[in-house]
C-alpha cells in the first residue's frame, strides 16, 4: 500500500465521495441492473420489470452498504429509450439522491438518458457511461447540452494497451482523436470525470489494466476505477471449464479481479450483476480495512467516520 505524491481529486457523486488517497474514503461499488437475462426484467424493449423483486435486490445492496461503510451506485443498462426512461424512473423512486450510471450499446439511448435526466432535474445524479475514443460528435454535443457533469471516461487505446498508451488516450488523444478524452470531456461540461482503465482480457492487457490504476492516479490524480469483472468474463478457458460442470469457479474469479483493483487503490468498481452484492461488499470492506490500516502509517487520515474499519473491527 502507498500514498501518492500527486494531489488527489475527490468528487461527491450521488451521495458518496470518490477519489483521494488510498485510505481516505471507502470504495464505491456500482451494481449492474436490467442487463440481458437479468431475472427482474419482464420486457427489455419496454422496460417492464418485476418491481418487487428489483427492489428486494436493491435493498440488499443498501443494507450491506449501511453495514460495511462501502459506498454504492447503480448502473442501469437499456437498449431502448422507453426502457431507459422506465429504469431511471424506477431508480429515482427507490434510491433518491443516489447516482445512476446510464449504459447502452446504442449511442442514441445513452444520449436520450442524459437529456431525460436533465429534463427531470436529475442531471447531477446521472453518470454518462461512457465517453471513449469511439464517441460520436453528436454524443459529445448532446452531453454538452445538458447539466450532466459526470461521466466514465474510458481510456481504451486499441493501438497501445500499456499504461502509457491509455494515459495518452486521456491526455493527447489517439486512434484518430484530435485531443485527449479529458479535454473533450471538459468541453462537454464533464467536471467530475471518473477514469476507467478499460479492463481487458487475460493475455491482451489485463495486467496492464491493473498497472494503469496506479498510473492514472499517480499522473492525473482523478478518481480511477473500472469494471474488472470483464477480465474473467472474457476468459475463454474459464467459460469452457464452467460449462463443463464447474459453475462454482466463476464467482471467485470475478470477485478476485475486483479485489486486485481494490488493493492497488481503485476508487470505484463496476462490479457486475447486483446478484453478487452479498459477496462483493464484505470482500471490498476487507480490502478497505487493510488499505486504511496500512496507509495510516504513511500519514493518510480517513476523511469520513463511516469506514469499514470503524464499523466492522
Notable traits:
313 residues, alpha/beta, TIM Barrel, two-stranded antiparallel ribbon, 12 helices, 12 strands
Report on the architecture of this protein.
The protein has 313 residues and is of the alpha/beta class. The chain has a single domain, classed as Alpha-Beta Barrel (TIM Barrel). The protein has 12 helices and 12 strands. Helix 5 (163-171) crosses helix 7. The longest helix is centred in the last third of the chain and has 20 residues, at 277-296.
Please give the structural blueprint.
Elements: E1 10-13, E2 16-19, E3 28-33, E4 41-43, E5 48-49, H1 51-68, E6 71-77, H2 81-94, E7 100-103, H3 107-119, E8 126-131, H4 137-144, E9 150-154, H5 163-171, H6 181-187, E10 192-196, H7 206-219, E11 224-226, H8 230-233, H9 236-243, H10 250-263, E12 268-273, H11 277-296, H12 308-312
Parallel strand pairs: 3-6, 3-12, 6-7, 7-8, 8-9, 9-10, 10-11, 11-12
Antiparallel strand pairs: 1-2, 4-5
Within the largest sheet, what's the order of strands?
3-6-7-8-9-10-11-12
CATH architecture: Alpha-Beta Barrel
Helix fraction, binned, reads: 40-55%
Task: Indicate the radius of gyration in whole angstroms.
Answer: 18 Å
The structural domain count equals 1
Summarize this entry quickly.
The chain is of the alpha/beta class.
Amino acid at each position: 500500500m502507498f500514498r501518492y505524491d500527486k494531489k488527489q481529486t475527490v468528487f461527491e457523486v450521488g451521495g458518496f465521495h470518490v477519489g483521494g488517497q488510498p485510505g481516505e474514503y471507502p470504495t464505491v461499488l456500482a451494481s449492474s441492473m436490467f442487463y440481458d437475462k437479468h431475472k427482474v426484467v419482464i420486457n427489455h424493449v419496454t422496460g417492464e420489470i418485476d418491481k418487487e423483486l428489483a427492489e428486494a435486490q436493491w435493498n440488499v445492496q443498501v443494507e450491506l452498504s449501511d453495514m460495511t461503510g462501502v459506498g454504492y451506485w447503480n448502473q442501469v443498462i437499456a437498449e431502448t429509450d422507453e426502457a431507459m426512461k422506465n429504469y431511471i424512473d424506477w431508480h429515482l423512486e427507490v434510491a433518491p439522491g443516489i447516482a445512476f450510471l446510464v449504459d447502452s450499446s446504442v449511442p442514441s439511448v445513452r444520449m436520450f438518458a442524459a437529456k431525460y435526466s436533465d429534463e427531470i432535474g436529475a442531471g447531477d445524479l446521472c453518470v454518462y457511461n461512457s465517453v471513449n475514443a469511439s464517441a460520436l460528435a453528436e454524443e459529445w454535443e448532446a452531453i454538452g447540452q445538458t447539466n450532466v457533469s459526470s461521466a466514465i471516461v474510458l481510456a481504451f487505446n486499441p493501438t497501445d494497451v500499456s499504461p502509457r498508451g491509455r494515459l495518452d488516450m486521456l491526455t493527447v488523444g489517439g486512434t484518430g482523436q484530435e485531443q485527449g478524452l479529458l479535454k473533450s470531456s471538459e468541453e462537454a461540461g464533464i467536471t467530475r470525470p471518473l477514469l476507467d482503465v478499460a479492463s481487458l482480457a487475460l493475455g491482451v492487457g489485463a495486467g496492464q489494466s491493473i498497472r494503469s490504476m496506479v498510473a492514472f492516479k499517480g499522473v492525473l490524480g482523478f478518481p480511477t476505477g473500472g469494471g474488472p469483472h470483464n477480465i474473467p468474463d472474457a476468459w475463454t478457458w474459464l467459460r469452457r471449464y464452467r460449462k463443463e460442470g464447474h459453475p462454482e469457479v466463476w464467482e471467485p474469479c470475478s470477485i478476485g479481479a475486483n479485489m486486485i483493483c481494490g488493493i492497488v487503490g481503485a476508487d470505484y468498481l463496476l462490479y457486475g450483476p447486483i446478484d453478487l452484492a452479498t459477496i462483493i461488499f464484505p470482500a471490498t470492506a476487507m480490502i478497505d480495512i487493510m488499505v486504511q490500516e496500512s496507509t495510516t502509517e504513511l500519514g493518510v487520515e480517513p476523511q469520513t467516520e463511516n469506514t469499514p474499519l470503524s464499523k466492522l473491527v
